[in-house]
Amino acid sequence: MIKNQIARWKAIYNEYPKTFWILIAVSFIDQLGGALLFPFFALYITARFNVGMVEVGILFALFSFSGFFGSLLGGALTDRFGRKQVVIFSLVATSISSVFMGLADSLEVFYVIAVLAGIFSVGGPARQAMVADILPEKKRAQGFGVLRVSANLSVAIGPAIGGLLLGVTSYLSLFIIDAVASTAVALLFAMVIPETKPEKEEGEEEESVSQSFGGYLTVAKDSLFMLFVGACILMGLVYVNLNASLGVYLRDEFSIAESGYGMLLSLNALMVVLFQFPITRRVENRPPMLVMAAGMLLYAIGFGMYGFVSTKAMFIFAMIILTVGEMFIAPVSQALVATFSPEKMRGRYMAVFGISWMVPFAVGPYLAGLVMDNMDSRILWYITGTIGIVATFAFLWLHGKMEPKLADIEIEATA
């Protein structure tokens, strides 16, 4: 049985080019550094500066708004100058900002550093464009699924280690570890990852910088794509509570310590590591909007349950439900973006898709903070579940609108 499993994984490995696996490996190192720290941001801010969730919401808003501009900048630069250089710059810049965050002695200084960190986070569209460059269209959903497995393997390990480290050391050590990991990955990118930007066709002129930014008007005119982004914003408003609100809610209402919350996140990540790839293989040929709707319904149920349940066993059960929804949604949504985007505009399409996360992280934690600081905290989860239901119907509506478009794209791709 073990021998068969090894053979199966070897066959999966051979389905993808070597460059893809190198990208996955170095990305894992970077993600592990961030996973030690990011889940504890809300806990750190409230404890370090003695503030409430509203201030945490303001922080996420500042980071998200600045990150939105950083993503737009990164998308244009990715399509203009290439993927590799943009990723390396982003890794170095964010490693420096991580150290300064750990050293900040006031909330106002922390806010300023968060804005700069957001602007410097230009590497996301470039890394996603790399996956789309390396893999053929039929392999992209699985490829993004593998990338998620890598990310969640880091999250399975990171929060648990971070929670244990916080028991014996300070938050500053986590900021430093994150910075060291990003710096190491920047060096690895420089040495072992080739540039994946498609070569210009013969006689084709290089875009100017102004033309690269002007390309965002083309993306904005893609109405079906923008409707999809709008539905994903609703999805993000639900999901953002996993990292921004849930830890504080469980601590304040049920006395769940940081280590317990970290273990809950590790369960989420471990499930993705074990089941993401087989689930992606089962759903990749299904109508993508129906897959998104099914995942969104599971989000609504899983997140909404936190407003009703009060035992550790039920907290775990709710996490299992929403994690299954996450495994439906994430790889399919990214593959859809790659499918809609013309080859030479992948960075910009990926950047605009980033709005579906930027907006929720900008406004979601702040609104959640208003609810948690001024009302019964359970109301937050009732609202979250309701938004999830609305998003489910949005994806069902998009199924009818977008299937003809997707069929046209598939026909063109095979022509």
Report what the structure shows:
The protein has 415 residues and is mostly helical. The chain has a single domain (15-195, 215-414), classed as Growth Hormone, Chain: A, CATH 1.20.1250.20. The protein is 83% helix and 0% strand. The chain is built from 19 helices and no strands. The protein has helices spanning 2-14, 18-37, 41-48, 53-81, 83-103, 107-120, 123-134, 140-166, 171-192, 209-220, 223-239, 241-244, 246-254, 258-283, 288-305, 312-340, 346-353, 355-374, 378-414. Helix 2 runs parallel beside helix 8 (140-166), helix 5 packs antiparallel against helix 6 and helix 5 (83-103) runs antiparallel to helix 7. The N and C termini lie far apart (42 Å). Residues 408-415 have low confidence and may be disordered.
Short description:
By secondary structure, the protein is mostly helical. It contains 19 helices and no strands.
Determine the fraction of residues in helical runs and give it as a percent range: over 70%
| CA distance, first residue to last residue | 42 Å
The amount of beta strand, in percent, is under 5%
CATH topology: Growth Hormone, Chain: A
Number of helices: 19
Number of strands: 0
Question: Mean pLDDT, nearest integer?
Answer: 82
- Write down the overall geometry: globular
Low-confidence stretches are 408-415
CATH superfamily: MFS general substrate transporter like domains
Please report the first level of CATH classification, the CATH class.
Answer: Mainly Alpha
Radius of gyration from the CA trace? Answer: 21 Å
